Each structure stands twice: as structure tokens, then as C-alpha cells.
Amino acid sequence: MTRPLVGGPDLASLAQHGMWVTERSGAAGPTPRTTPLPGHPAVYRMPLAVWFDGPMEVGRMLAACGEVVRRHPVLTSTLAERDGVLRLLTGTAEVPVTLAEAPADPLDLAGEGHLDLATGPLARFTLARTGPDRYLLVFAAHHIVFDGMSKDILVRDLAAAYAGEPLPPLPVPYGEAVEDENARVRDRLPGAAEFWRARWHDSRELVLPGLGTPTLHAAPGDAVDFVLGDEVGRTAAPLGLTRFEVVLSALRLLLHAYGNARAAVAVDLSTRTEATREHIGLFVNELPLDVVPSGTFAEFAADVRAELRRMYAYRHVPLARALGGVSPRAALTPVSLSYRARSEAEPVFPGLAASVEWMMFNGAVRNTLHLQVVDGPRGTAARLQYNPRHLGRAGCESVAADLTALLRGVAERPHAPIDDLPLPSRVAGAAGGTGLQRPRAGGTDSGLVVAVGEIWRQVLDLDHVDPGDDLFDLGGHSLSITQIIAKVRDTMAVDLPFEVFIDDPTVEGVAAEVARQRSLA
């Protein structure tokens, strides 16, 4: 066990706040607690596996894990809401570094122990010997303190520590980095609001091969793995595009071919700066991109590139903070994409051969379909993660095959009109699409409705709020929910569950939940 460092409260980032309020699903007594996102407890668990062959010095490896934690104390954090403000409490949880029996499945080690936001730990290392001179190290962390680029940092630092190299201090403390990021959000908020007002359409309609209804709920998931060949690179270089832009353009074009007239793809954009490039932590923001395909692929991809460049100016600003009106959800849109380029070679551990499982699947999904791509020196690995209750495996395999065929065709004829490319047939029933509706609840005691409405009016800084008004239509967001929960707790001695703001985010709906909890007291 690594011992926690002495630390104090820092303001959580807005990205952390959005994830925290999404996971907050209830409370016991007057003190808020967090539980895993309803649907699947592993949805925000980020696992990483490293296989070792050779005569490992086990004590030295366990000590190296401790050195990594000392360099990155954010891993020792917990989170707590105080008077409507979310704080990151560094040094309040130990990071377990343990030995275990050889597992039947590496994911068994990654799934051990709940990563609790309120009590910790938010990360753990587990080392197992799987055979003579064969070892498996599994690291798992909550996404709220760990992102995709953190994987490279963690493994690189672990290799250096095992080699006996001192780990230098970070350029700035994590709390200072978060303060800087929050300041950038405040500075860019007016521009981001204007930018997204004309672009965001909260459409949850989607058509895919084999799709029943689309979903934005976390759930147990499945995955289809495939490999993207050199066609991505062969397309990118001549057109002056990045490989990420080629993949994103192809995915959006494929959705268009299936019959999705509007189909925003939520993309993960890094918010790292020069000061935070060495940090383990959450420095990523999910933002939607929807460019309607037209012309040739080269022209369409150029439009995608231009739109991405416009988005980059506001990449630090969460969409819900820019606009309001965006309800908390596990993912912004039913289809999403994460792309990570790895330019570094595999890390070197003295005396050991190491192999890293960079795309270890946690067994959960946040929406209908997510394309994960890791582009490294050894090739471009791709995975489609999907919700099997909504999308059949055969349908997901069709998407993978269609995307691969499209990218091959684009590599051969990037300047061909998009209708001349190898696109699949339109999915039957695409004209209407299938949407998701949010249920609404009825009213309750008029005096209680008035009292809750007054809390909303204060939090949202409005002159008037009607009983049937939707929180998100009024511009509410995750911070508003936290403040409303805090005020209701302080004035009414009721701790609201998070789900009420999903099931019925109206004044009447919240008042009805207050009345229900009072009746149970």
C-alpha cells in the first residue's frame, strides 16, 4: 500500500465535475455519497495491462509503482461536495499496490475493488505471477483522475522508476493546473456559447445495421476488434490531413450512408497544455462534430478539418457549460470516437521484455457505439464497443467491415465524389430514425412546488420559473444540479438523488421527489 500524501482541497475541474454529477446516484443520510453510474459499475474504470517476461525483481517493481504514485498524487485523491462546490482532496486515499494469484482473465484483476469517488481509492496496482518468469501487472483507475494519454505517462514513469531513474517533479501541481484550465474556460465561455448555439442539436436519433433503439445509458458492453491498414496514412498525407481527421471523416460519411441526415459524432479532444503534458489526470473534453457530407471525400474531409480547427478554440469548455440545456448523460451522442496517436516505442524495463495492452476493454459502454483507435508504431488498432441490448453483434461487425472498405476505397480515390465510393446501402427505416424520450412526472403540493421553484430561481438567476419548466431548457447544467441539491438539503433536510434530474428535471418533478422522501422519513 502506498501511503497518502499530506494535501488539501483543490477546486475540481469542470470535466471532473461533470463526471462526478453523472455518477452521483443517491445519498444515505445528510452526507452525499457517490455510487457507480447506474447501468454498469465499470463504465468509468480505465484498465491497463503490462505483460512481462524475464526474471523480475518483484520488490523493485512494487516500489516503482509507489514512485509513480508519489510523482502523481492526484491518484491519491477523493472528491467531496462542500456547499455546492466540488473539491478534489489530494492525499486522502491510499493507492493499493498488491500481489495476487494468477487470474483466469486479466480483467479480473482490473475489476477488483470499487473505485469510490468519495472514499477512494481511485487507482490500484495489482501484480500477479502467471508462470515461470512471466508476470502480469494490471493498473486500474477511475477516469475522473486518468485519461488516455495518462496511460503513456504512467507506463513510461513506471519503466524509469524500475530502472532506478529518479522521477522529476511535475512542472506545476495538479491543483494549479486545474485552476489554469478553469480560468481558460471562463475566458472562452462567451465565445463558446455563441459557437455552439448554432451547431448543437440534441438529436438522439440513429440508424445502424441491426440497431433497435439508440441509447445514452451506461451498460455492460461488448466489442469488435479490427485493424486499420496503411490506407489511413496513404489518404492523410496527400490531402494534408491528420490520420485522426481521415478516420473521423470516414465514420461520419458512413453514418450518412446508413441514412442519418444529422449524426453528430462526439469526439474526445485533449485539453492538455505544455504545463500539463506530463500530468496523469483528466485532461480531455468530449465535444460533438456534425459536418454534412458533400462533394468529394477530399472536399468533405477538408470541411471536417476546418470545423475541428474552429472547435479547438473552445476545446476546454464543456458543452453543458457553454449552452446549458444539456442534460447529464454518460455520453453526448449515441456514436462517439476516441483517437490516440502513440509515437513512442514500447517502454524498456531492464532485464524484462514488456508488452502493453493499451486498449484493454473494461466491459462497459457509455452509449450505442464507440469507435476507439490507437495509432502506434506497430500499426493502427481499432475497436467498436457497443451495447448488445440495443445493437446486435452482426450489426456491429457490419459497421467495422463497412468502415474498413470505405477507408480502402478512399485511399484509392480520395478525389472521387462521395456517392462513387464503396458505401453501404441505406438502412431500412432510416427516414424516421429512432429517438429517445425522457419520461416526465406529475405535480405535488403547491407550497412545496413554490419553495423548490424559488431555489431554482436563485440558482439559475431568473426572474420567474414555472412548475413545468425543464431545468436544462432553462440553461441548467451539472453545476446547477449540485447547487440545487445543496440548497434543498440545507433548507428542506432532504438529500435529492441524482436520478430525478434525469427522470423528471422539472420543478414539479423535484418537488414530488422531496415529498416522497419526506413521507419515508
Automatic annotation (TrEMBL):
Residues 443-518 form the Carrier domain. PROSITE patterns: CARRIER (PS50075), PHOSPHOPANTETHEINE (PS00012). Keywords: Phosphopantetheine, Phosphoprotein. InterPro entries: ACP-like_sf, CAT-like_dom_sf, Condensation_dom, PKS_PP-bd, PP-bd_ACP, Ppantetheine_attach_site. The keyword Phosphoprotein applies. It comes from the Bacteria. Its cofactor is pantetheine 4'-phosphate. The keyword Phosphoprotein applies. It holds the Pfam family PP-binding. SUPFAM superfamilies: ACP-like, CoA-dependent acyltransferases. This is Condensation domain-containing protein. It comes from Nonomuraea roseola.
